[in-house]
């Protein structure tokens, strides 16, 4: 492996759960040294489940390639060690409860006074200031507050996203913000203070439905697996299950009718002659489509869609995703070591011609405490 892009960068992270650990894991993937500061009981994400041979699936996902040090941050010695680490670090990341980092004496101003080149990154639920600053914020609750549940689910029932999307969005902006700050520091020589709120991160991802509702007069309707404003777009019945397809324009609609359904005249039906008409007449549109597709096996439908150049997909379980032929053909899996043995893990999605990525072991609680203290000249 050649030199990694962030080799030589040290990140100290007071992190827990998902948002901060996902941001710092991506920095670790690129070669940054990530020192994860834990309590004696560890990041509570270690206890979310026991599905990976006794380890938590969340922790395995979020914490490879890191070093774990246990510090008692209620003691003077623990604070002294933390301050020494921060004084030598390039980046400090934290998603502690509001006000906690200031109580440790490492709020933005104090930390940059200690280390002017430091990039100080904080993740919170709602951001500094405002009446929501101290309100508890979990992923589902932010999905509610950002309006995601108002557009996700069925007309009868809202549904949350099946992954921690609020945490993930905040993590991605933290990660990209830190990379940007490192580039800026290379020019100015000065550190920076970054603040990322989960509400605002997910709110950015909700901007399209916001514009649709704010200026269109009505919000997008919850439409299950169907697209709220495009038709046909979503799941349709096959003889042996279900297929998903998406029509993007009138040319594709005409091709779909003639080459997939074998009913070219359907494209000229005045109820379906434009996308807004198809959306308005979605129930009868689906009835016409399903009358053909429900008599065909899914493999044949998918083959017809591929031949016609119509976007389509197979609804896969997690096991079927794990065995996806495209991921296998592109060699996108790699084993990551852990105390419970090698764990097959997906390689990060950005590939570089010049640099590899690092996928080192998942640490035990405090596995690197002695090593790090020794480097600091401490017992």
Assign an overall shape: elongated
At CATH's second level, what is the architecture of the largest domain?
3-Layer(aba) Sandwich
The CATH superfamily of the largest domain is: Crotonobetainyl-coa:carnitine coa-transferase, domain 1
Measured by DSSP, the beta-strand proportion falls in 15-25%
Number of folding domains? 2
Residue stretches low in confidence (pLDDT < 50, at least 5 long) are none
Tally the beta strands.
13
Strand order of the largest sheet: 3-2-1-4-5-8
CATH topology descriptor of the largest domain: Rossmann fold
What about the largest sheet?
6 strands, parallel
Mean of residue pLDDT values: 95
Distance between the termini: 33 Å
Number of helices: 17
Question: What is the H/E string?
Answer: EHEHEHEHHEHHEEHEHHEEHHHHEHHEEH
**CATH class bucket of the largest domain:** Alpha Beta
* Rg from alpha-carbon coordinates: 25 Å
Share in helix: 25-40%
How would you classify the helix and strand content by structural class? Answer: alpha/beta
Report on this model:
With 379 residues, this protein is an alpha/beta fold. It folds into two domains: 10-206 and 331-375, Crotonobetainyl-coa:carnitine coa-transferase, domain 1 (Rossmann fold, 3-Layer(aba) Sandwich), CATH 3.40.50; 233-316, formyl-coa transferase, domain 3. It has helices at residues 19-29, 57-62, 76-88, 100-103, 108-114, 139-145, 148-151, 165-188, 198-205, 207-216, 250-260, 275-280, 282-293, 298-308, 318-322, 325-329, 369-375, and strands spanning 10-14, 33-38, 66-70, 91-94, 119-124, 153-154, 157-158, 192-197, 233-238, 241-246, 311-313, 333-336, 343-346. Strands 3-2-1-4-5-8 form a six-stranded parallel sheet, with helices on both faces. Strands 9-10-11 form a three-stranded antiparallel sheet, with helices on one face. Helix 2 (57-62) links the parallel strand 2 and strand 3. Helix 1 (19-29) crosses helix 8 and helix 11 packs across helix 14 (298-308). The longest helix is centred in the middle third of the chain and has 24 residues, at 165-188. The protein is elongated, with a radius of gyration of 25 Å.
